[in-house]
Amino acid sequence: MLCQALHRFGQKLVRGPAPKETVAENDPRRSLNTLDLVALGVGGTLGVGVFVLACEVVRNQAGPSFVICVLVAGLFSMLIGLYYAEISARVPHSGLAYIYSHVIIGELWAFITGWNLLLSIGANAVIFFHIFFLAFEHLRVTLHEIILPHVSHLLEDNLDFIVMFLLWYLTELWYICISSVIKMFTLVKILVLSFVIISGFIKGHLYNWKLTEEDYAMAGLNDTSSLGPLGSGGFVSFGFEGILRGTATCFYVFTGFEEIVTRLGEAQNPQRSIPRGIVISLFICFVLYFGVSLALTLMVPYYKLKPGSILPEAFLLIGWAPAYYVVVFVFLFFFFRNRIDLILLTYQLLHDMAVDGLLFPVCARILTWSILQHGIIVIFYIIAIIMFFFFGLTDLVDLMLIGSLMSYSMVAICVLIIRYQPERRNGGNESEVLEENGHIVERLTLQGLLFPGSPTPTPLSGRVVYVCSSLLALLLILLCLVLAQWPVLLSGDPVWISVAVLLLVLITGITGVIWRQPQSSSPLHFKVPALPFLPLLSVFVNVCLMMQMSAATWAQFGVWMLIGFAIYFSYGIQYSLVSN
């Protein structure tokens, strides 16, 4: 009796909806070609974060090894882009990771993904306000220096309001923009960062990667034997931990390419254009960010960057004041679309979760009120401004990254699971799959686990991969927790070493079981290579990076998840659309 009750409860947690009908290939709404998608991806990824977080990571977390942080974050962001590319072809629906999790791995994981995405989007909105006011301050000072000697006292008294209006106006351009305007703004962003890169190679010195304690002392920054917050000098100034912490922060600047997937219903030939759009846009952003990391660390000794510095200040430190003014003004273009994108993503995610019954139905009804569709912007601003006064910029980045890295891990696991699932028609159940594939009901045996008798996926092999993927996710988390105690491991503690070896053996064995299962042979224009190894590597790296967050950040995240689980287990599990 108890086993049956637990079985029914488990089925509720992993149930998912059938895939919905897709937009027809000849539908007039499909108007976006690959170039449009690349412009959307680059425009969404090249945001305001690079102007602030680059200096933050260089000064406080990684020093010159910021270059390695960008390299690692960029490569693994490319992998995440590949997962989105395949999964959007297999589940061709416009949406975020929540949609894919719901269809592939079930209701509970979809709720966790959606709830974390809400946290990530909310934190991102407050980060936007932090950077907005930081930009406002720099623009105000710059305009005071340039314009005040040539304007009347009337303009001088109202200069702050002029700057605020200019910033706000550019963030509102989304409402009237067209595709050509998006491409123009994206081009401006690329040109600005290209200018920073070229300047860095002109004014840069390799010596800034080999700074020593004497350099700090000569600069008047250190009069003791301890460098303290300045690190230990050299290229890896803050050690391996600094690289890990910096890599986690650098993931923030690579977020935004998911907007391409949300436009899947508008893309021409999506099975080709979506993968190309994701890969090309991420490659362009990676080249630009990697170039900026080289330029910044070569131009300026990292200890000269002050708290709250933004990227253009590097030009002041090398004596290029005109370049500083130009880049600060063009900083405005990086606010284009960021705010309104966040509002639209929040609106879409809340609506999807409410329609699916995972949030209270009143949310879906309220979101359809025309008066609230305009008022939600005001509500969004009020909540973001309140959070602005209670959270620092780095704390918000950490919260946002936990939500984003978790959703990215879910997408990697979704790709791993769906590649090994049997084909089924929309709404088809397991018995129909058995009949279509000509299989009889199978029994799980050790021989069948390692040597499956079918060359194509069966319901049994699909369930084996599902269970093994869940176990691997748990084991990888445990392994990361053990590896976080690396000083104890290096000291030769036999208990910790035995635990690490045992976990590695289990992970290797379960990965081998998945590798032996038959994969789907569906013809797709793009498939992620090296399954099951690449998705598992991505999950491992994501968990390692999440381990770099502070205890306070994890406490805040824990409170957020407790609220979410209370909503799901008190309401969502009983009244979800799938259960009815």
Automatic annotation (TrEMBL):
<feature type="transmembrane region" description="Helical">
    <location>
        <begin position="278"/>
        <end position="303"/>
    </location>
</feature>
<dbReference type="InterPro" id="IPR029485">
    <property type="entry name" value="CAT_C"/>
</dbReference>
<protein>
    <recommendedName>
        <fullName>Cationic amino acid transporter C-terminal domain-containing protein</fullName>
    </recommendedName>
</protein>
<dbReference type="Pfam" id="PF13906">
    <property type="entry name" value="AA_permease_C"/>
</dbReference>
<feature type="transmembrane region" description="Helical">
    <location>
        <begin position="182"/>
        <end position="202"/>
    </location>
</feature>
<feature type="domain" description="Cationic amino acid transporter C-terminal">
    <location>
        <begin position="526"/>
        <end position="576"/>
    </location>
</feature>
<keyword id="KW-0472">Membrane</keyword>
<dbReference type="Pfam" id="PF13520">
    <property type="entry name" value="AA_permease_2"/>
</dbReference>
<keyword id="KW-0813">Transport</keyword>
<feature type="transmembrane region" description="Helical">
    <location>
        <begin position="159"/>
        <end position="176"/>
    </location>
</feature>
<feature type="transmembrane region" description="Helical">
    <location>
        <begin position="121"/>
        <end position="139"/>
    </location>
</feature>
<feature type="transmembrane region" description="Helical">
    <location>
        <begin position="97"/>
        <end position="115"/>
    </location>
</feature>
<feature type="transmembrane region" description="Helical">
    <location>
        <begin position="375"/>
        <end position="393"/>
    </location>
</feature>
<feature type="transmembrane region" description="Helical">
    <location>
        <begin position="315"/>
        <end position="336"/>
    </location>
</feature>
<feature type="transmembrane region" description="Helical">
    <location>
        <begin position="464"/>
        <end position="489"/>
    </location>
</feature>
<feature type="transmembrane region" description="Helical">
    <location>
        <begin position="65"/>
        <end position="85"/>
    </location>
</feature>
<keyword id="KW-1133">Transmembrane helix</keyword>
<feature type="transmembrane region" description="Helical">
    <location>
        <begin position="557"/>
        <end position="578"/>
    </location>
</feature>
<feature type="transmembrane region" description="Helical">
    <location>
        <begin position="495"/>
        <end position="516"/>
    </location>
</feature>
<feature type="transmembrane region" description="Helical">
    <location>
        <begin position="37"/>
        <end position="59"/>
    </location>
</feature>
<feature type="transmembrane region" description="Helical">
    <location>
        <begin position="399"/>
        <end position="418"/>
    </location>
</feature>
<feature type="transmembrane region" description="Helical">
    <location>
        <begin position="528"/>
        <end position="551"/>
    </location>
</feature>
<keyword id="KW-0812">Transmembrane</keyword>
<keyword id="KW-0029">Amino-acid transport</keyword>
<dbReference type="InterPro" id="IPR002293">
    <property type="entry name" value="AA/rel_permease1"/>
</dbReference>
